[in-house]
Write a structure and sequence with these properties.
Elements: H1 8-47, E1 49-53, E2 58-62, E3 67-75, E4 78-89, E5 92-100, H2 107-120, E6 128-137, E7 140-148, E8 154-162, E9 165-173, H3 178-187, E10 189-190
Antiparallel strand pairs: 1-2, 2-10, 3-4, 4-5, 5-9, 6-7, 7-8, 8-9
Length: 194
Amino acid sequence: MFYPHLSYHSAVAQRNKIAGFALIVLALVLMGTEVLLQSLRQRYESHWKKFTSTEGNFSVVMPGKPKEETQSFLINGVKMEEHRFSVLFGNASFAVSFLDGPVLLTPAAGERMLDAAGQALTQGDGSKTLSAYKLIVNDYPAREYKTMAEDGSQTDVKLYLVRRRLYILIVAQDRVTYHEVNRFFDSFTFEPRE
């Protein structure tokens, strides 16, 4: 920048003052942005709370207070009851359910049931399976599935078969929220019933 009314040294000094002022303004903007981000992070984090179901013998971190629902249905003439706890948060729905089977399945039958549940996730609605993982958690069989619907929405599902009890964790979202999915899934703990 050329300042015709200033001497060379005065022009350099003026330019340095302007550069210094610009750096101060930039530092203030960055500090303000960091304060805003910390505030948003704290507000976001404050939504996530540990939820414990004594009847279900589990705990999980959810982004808000869950709504509880119970649904009864028949499977092969046997009355089953599903207990579901769900929260809507942003563009996602988080749910954990449990239901108890009438009998203890053999290990092979339990594995088949978990595999069949994964196949049922994509039947009839044009969804496709993006990933499927066979897991063992605390010596119990588990599965983790990720599916995508025709509209691009994704569903992450984790199933645990703990003796006669089936736990189902589901996150359904319009766009990928890996952090929330992992936080929800990783926080889940259960105590086997006798």
